Amino acid sequence: MASELRIVRSAQPGSAAPLRHALEAFMVALGVAPTVRIDIVTAVGEALANTIEHAYKGAEKVGDVELVARLDEKASTLAVEIIDHGTFIAPKRRRNRGLGLGIMKRASQSFTLQTVSGTSVRMLFDAAFLHGPH
Amino acid sequence: MNPEPSIGVITLNGELDIARKDELRSALSVTQSAHPVLIDLVGVTYADSTALSELLRFSLEAQERNVPVALLAISPQFLRVIEYARLDQALRVFTDRERALEYLHAS
To answer: Which of A3, A38, A42, B80 stands 20 to 30 A from A134 (CA)?
Structure first.
């Protein structure tokens, strides 16, 4: 059973849905419970929307967004990372982005954001809950 | 016997994400009337904060004109994202059509 998903798309608005659907299919294959999939897709959907809207704003060419999801049985986590190579803009300087950040924090167990050569949002979901309601 | 006051209905379907921002904005800019508005989201399966921002903006603008707005939604994802965005007070969300209409008629 595949326990890693890696998918790259151009950071265009139309890429958000296919990326969410790929993640959803990956989680269905892993047997993740529907109620848990909702949290994960909701959190990851925000990170994708954020990247698509802001990462390459003002850039000559729209770059890529990469989604990596990895199930770590040992650490008992599902880690999802959304990576771009654009310019990070602090949420307080954007209109309404505080909303998306709050959703990501509340829907995941752990949330970290790195802004070294692009932006990487990494979210962890507790694998102990993956197969049952919480 | 008083006739029922008329209610404007805006119906949205599918996944409301960043790709549909402009469409959503124009769908939610049609009404300037004084009639209460029901936003029917029964066919919506996913929404992100882009969509929530538009719904919130519409509701707040209507509120300023004393026009009540009710959202009707049943998708588990929609109900959860509303909660995570802490918008369960700012937006009037109903899962039952009758109760949404009751609210609009009473307002």
So the answer is: A3
